[in-house]
Every structure is written in C-alpha cells, then in structure tokens.
Amino acid sequence: MSAVTGWTTLDDQVVAHARALAADAVQKVGNGHPGTAMSLAPVAYTLFQRHLIHDPSDPQWLGRDRFILSCGHSSLTLYIQLYLSGYGLEMKDLESFRTWGSLTPGHPEFGHTAGVEMTTGPLGQGVATAVGMAMAARYERGLLDPDAPAQQSVFDHSIWVICSDGDLQEGVSAEASSLAGTQELGNLNVIYDDNRISIEGDTHNAFTEDVSARYRAYGWHVIDVAAAANGNVDLAALDAAMVAAKKETGKPTLIRMKSVIAWPAPKAQGTAGSHGSALGEDEIKATKVALGLNPDEHFAMPADVLAHARLVKDRGAQHRAQWNTKFESWKASNPDKATLLTRLQTRSLPAGWDGQLPVFAPGKDVATRAASGEVINAIAAVLPEFWGGSADLAGSNNTSIKGGGSFLPASSAIDGAHPYGRIIHFGIREHAMGSILNGITLHGLTRSFGGTFAVFSDYMRPAVRLAALMNIATTFVWTHDSIGVGEDGPTHQPIEHFAALRAIPGFDVIRPGDANEVTEAWKKIITRGKACGILLSRQNLPVFDRTQCESASGTAQGAYILKELPNPKAILIATGSEVSLAIDAQTALAAEGINVRVVSAPCLEWFAEQDQSYKDSVLSPDVVKISIEVGIAQGWRELIGDSGVAISLEHYGASADAKRLFKEFGFSVDNVVAQVKKAI
Questions:
Q1: Domain boundary among 491, 514, 541
Q2: Which residues face 508 on adjacent strands?
C-alpha cells in the first residue's frame, strides 16, 4: 500500500490491473507501446483520481481542468484512465485497441474519443499546445472575471500534461516552454516521465542535458521526484509534487519524475524493446505474477476494483456542484458577462458584427497585409474574444490590435503589458506559435490568429497540419507572400509554399487579390470556423473599381468572375498580386481585339465546394484557361486542363526590387499576352 494519505489496497489493485491491461491490449493487436503505459499507470491514476478537476459525465464541462497526454504513443495511459473514470470507454474498447473503427486508435484523436482534449502524435505538440491552453485560460478570465482575487474566479483551472523524453527533445516544446516561463503561466503543470528510454535505447545517446536546470532557466518551478528503490514510481513523493504544483501560481511547474519503463516486467523493464513492441505472452504472465494477478486472465478487471475507480465520478459531480454554486453567483453578479459567455460558448456572433468592416475605395494602392491589419482591428472592435499577434513581426504582418495591450504577466516591464492584453508576442518561435494557437482554439471560447512571413510556414507545418486534422478554427496569417518581398532574396520568397499548403486536407488557403477581397476573406474566416491560412502581399496592389468589376462578395465562393468581356477567347485565373496583372493583360488584349475573362481565385478550397453549375459558369469548360500565380504550377492542372497554360515560377527567386523580379520571371503583361495568343 502507498504512503499517500487515503490510498487503499483497492487503489493498488486498480493500478496493478491497469498495468496488466496495457500489456494485454498491445499483445492482442500485436503492436503498440506497452512500456510507458505500464509505468505511467499509477501516475495517471493518481492525477485523475486525486488532482484533476473533471466530471466524466460531461467531458466538455466548462469548469474542468484540461489534461494532455503529450506522449501520444502511450495512448493506453489515457484510454485506461478514461475507462476507469467512466468517460464511456468500456473493456471492449480496450480490447479493440488500434483496430478499425475503434474508439481507441493508436494515438489519441480529438473529436473521436470523449475525454481527449487534443490530437497528440508528433512529440512536443502536446506540451506546446498546452501552453496555448494555459494562455487562453488567462485571457478568458480577463474577459469574464478580471477582478476576481487570485485563484478565486470560477474560471480558474489548471492545465495538466504528461510528457516524455521525446517531447522535451523536440524543439517545439522548448520554444513554447520558454514562452510559458516568460508568461508566468502558473496554471500549467507538466509531469515529465524521465525513463531514459527511446526507440534507439538509452536517451543518453543523444540527450544528456540537465532538463531540470533548463526549465529553471526558463523560469519554471521544478520539482524532482526520484524513483522508489525498487524502480516503481514513488507515489508519495509524486502526490506531494502535484499538491505543490497546484499551490505554485506564479510559475509553470515541471515535475521531473524518474521511472522505469515497463515496470515491473521481470525482463522487459528498463529496455528499449518495451517501448514499442508487445512483451510476449510469457513476459506478460510473469508480470502479472509480479503484480499479484492471475497470469491466465486477460483483460481482467474485478467489479469491485472498477467500482472503486469509478467513484471518481461522484467526486467529479461534487466538484461540479460546488462550481455550479459559484457559477450561478457569478452570473447573477455579472449579467452582461454571462450574456457574453453564452455567445462565446455557442460560437455565435453579435448582430451586425461585420457592419463596420472596412470598404476600400479605388484609386489608392493598398498592400493586402495593410488591409488585413485594418480588418483585424475592425473585427477586434466588436469581438472581444478576438486576439492574436505575431512571431516578432507584428509591424510587418500588421497583426497588432490598437490599444489592445501586450499579453504579458503583471511583473513584465514591457510598456503596455497587461495579463489580459490582446496582443500576443510569440517571439521568434513560428512552430510554437502554431501549436499555441491550436491550444487557444481548443480551449474553446476565443478566436485567435498569429502571423509570420509566408516562407516560414514551413517552420509551422506540423502545427498547421494538426489544426486541419483536428478540424479546428485556427487562423494563420502569412504575409510577404511572393517574390514581391524583393531584395530579401530567395530565402524569404515563397515559391512552393502555396502548393504545399493546399496539399493539406481540410485546410483553406486564401490569397486575396485586393483590399476588398481581404475584407470578404476575413468575414468568411470568422463565420466558417475552419483551419485556414491567409496569404498577404508586402507590396501595394491596386484596389479594383467595383463599378467596373464584380463585387468582392464573390470571394466567399472561392473564385468568381472579376471582369468579363463579351465572347471571351480565354480565361485568366489568378490569385493575390497576380490578379491585377490579369486585369492589365485583359486591357492589353482587348486593345488587340482579343477578349478574355478575368477570374479571381482567392481560395481554391472554397471554390471546390461550389456546385458544378457555378464552377462551369466561372470556368467555362469549352474556353482555354491560363493560370497566373507566382509559385510552382503544381495543383493548377486540374483547373486549367491539359490544354491550359500555367504561368508559374518553377525555380527560386533572386535579390532585386519586386518590379524587376516580376518582369524577369515572366509575370508581365507582355508575357501574359504572348501566352494567351499561343493558347488560343
């Protein structure tokens, strides 16, 4: 029996059976990761039973703590606790682990299994995303209950993470953890399972740093928990560390916990083989004997043991009842805030929210990044839940909210710092920014955005992919979207990036052609609620005269006829800065008696969703098509067909002014005219 106060022999039995379940589940399917799930069984059980505030009857309860299993390969660690806690998983679900149609896939999947707060798979993402959740919790408190004493708000709660050696080797976790220290996120608690094992063996083959010292240098509260003499987790010390973590409100906490992977398997414990392979029937039997269990039973869970574990549902109901009392009192005292909360929970928008979005008059060229900055501020004026920033490029990305204040702890010496500020300074941490934005979105009540240069979307791609995979409404702002960057040269000029981003399933890539398309794009981003990225120009672009061109409202259809001439011989399809080039080419061709249609295609994903009759009305099947985009042609062939022409850029750029680059690389009226003449 553990030395933890209130711990009983039934708790020992729950943990013993949980370890055996992990081994049995992997053995049955023939693949998976048993070792960490076995050694982490008492850790997760202690957390779910004694420290995590949650109500298994309602996984989306507003007042709950969040739990992230960052080492997603150890998914059984989470699934077993969801089973034991009564979230809806039953033994049959553990028996179908990693099989088609099961609720227990190889890695936890958001939206698939109740109680899973995010999709974890790529190591480091859970830690970084949890930082976003912790930031969101603070911002939401500021929206709804800013004047409550510390730790007394109905909206105060904790974010808990279990992570592995692999998580802390990944750069994204380091980026995010550094920011978490700067932000003094006292609501964030990370349990680091330091078992010194990875797929290739002892982690000291590549990972010898003092992690505790590193996290102290980040500004974290660090608690070191040694393993028990027999190799088991020291539950008493771990429990005390969890208590201390909750008491520390001025810093995030890292509990560095020593463990032995696959403990207490006689031969497999402490070995790399136990990380990602089934133990084998003989080893599992020996392990069950060591645990005091029947070696011939599989997927065993005595009724009294399960009933004891599921008493956590009663404690969860008590927590919720206490919270509800405070919540009702808060609602009575804060009717306007309560109304706001209802709107945030339903993801609804106030009537006429878009009434003050800017409309740009023709006659003055405007960079789409500048237009986006105006739209962001107009949205922020009516949506207090709208906040964001940049990876140290706010002035270039136009992602600052005027008068919004910098989201920083009260201790910060930065001018304009405020714990509930609306401007996030991510620092030069593009990957962490993407993950943090996902965490903010997943937390549930607010809408955020983050900006950098388009070429650095590569640094963010794993987080972008996860946003699409989870089908969440994270918005990425990418400026300096072409060779229009100019003198910074090819390292800063996105060439293959449009195609690479469009290749992500379920992700909207939006490249507006003028300032008014920017307004319409943002309007749809807000109402659509899907993962997306908006690509914006550094250079000024003409604002189209909508008395001569069609309304920018066509942006919402993804592609629309911008300017039509009678009996067109060809269709010019362009995005972004190249749309104005298409208009100029249309004028030049018309002067030679050749009429063409100009189609602006700000979002191919939105266009793909339209019915066929609309698509055919825009891109007439019997008319030759020429695409114009300053990037590789990949992806355009399905729109222009085999007979179409792609005016593209199939090589890297150069350092020169933007006008010279466009001319040298064939993005000129003369070349477009020549290509049209050849095509028709």
A1: 541
A2: 532
Structure tokens at 421: 């500020």
Containing H/E element for 58?
none
Q: Cα separation of 113 and 102, whole Å?
A: 9
- Tell me: do 525 and 657 sit in the same domain: no
Of residues 170, 184, 430, 517, which has the active-site annotation? 430
Residues 565 and 529 in one domain: no
* Best CA proximity match to 32, nearest among 373, 285, 274: 274
Show Cβ contacts of residue 414 under 8 Å, excluding neighbours closer than 6 positions.
406, 408
What is the C-alpha to C-alpha distance for residues 334 and 338, in angstroms, rounded to an integer? Answer: 6
Question: Could you tell me the mean pLDDT of each successive run of 10 residues in the chain, 680 residues long?
Answer: 88 98 98 98 98 98 98 98 98 98 98 98 98 98 96 97 98 98 98 97 97 98 97 97 98 98 97 96 98 98 98 98 98 98 98 97 97 98 98 98 97 96 98 98 98 98 98 98 96 98 98 98 98 98 98 98 98 98 98 98 98 98 98 97 97 97 98 97
Bridge partner residues of 561 (DSSP): 599
Q: Are residues 568 and 513 in the same domain?
A: no
Same domain, 596 and 523: no
- Cα separation, 529 vs 427, whole angstroms: 26
Eight-state DSSP code of residue 145? -
- The answer as to whether 2 is a domain residue is no
Q: What is the pLDDT of residue 469?
A: 98
- State residue 2's pLDDT score: 73
Q: Helix or strand or coil: residue 96?
A: coil
pLDDT at 1: 60
Q: How far apart are CA 126 and CA 39, in angstroms?
A: 20
Q: Is 49 helix (H, G, I), strand (E, B) or coil?
A: helix
How distant, in Å, are the alpha carbons of 93, 350, 442, 451, 560 from that of 98? Answer: 10, 43, 24, 37, 44
Which amino acid is present at 355? G
Residue 292: closest CA among 677, 101, 61, 19: 19
Residue type, 82: L
Is residue 41 within 8 Å of 78, Cβ to Cβ? no
Which tokens go with 569?
A: 């011989």
Residue 74 CA to its chain's centroid (Å): 20
430 a catalytic residue: yes
In Å, how far are 164, 233, 287, 613 from 196, measured between CA atoms?
Answer: 9, 14, 21, 60
Taking CA atoms, 648 is separated from 8, 22, 487, 662, in Å, by 70, 53, 20, 11
CATH number (domain holding residue 646)? 3.40.50.920
Name the residue type at position 408: L
- Co-location of 91 and 160 in the same domain: yes
**What is the three-class DSSP state of 645?**
strand
Task: List all residues 6 or more positions away from 348 whose beta carbon is below 8 Å from its beta carbon.
Answer: none
Measured CA to CA in angstroms, residue 79 lies from 103, 182, 291, 431, 443 at distances of 9, 33, 20, 28, 21
Enclosing domain of residue 588: 554-679
Number of domain units in the chain: 3
- Check whether residue 312 and residue 388 sit in a common domain: no
Of residues 652, 630, 654, the one with CA closest to residue 489: 654
The one-letter amino acid code at 390 reads S
Shared domain check, 664 and 634: yes
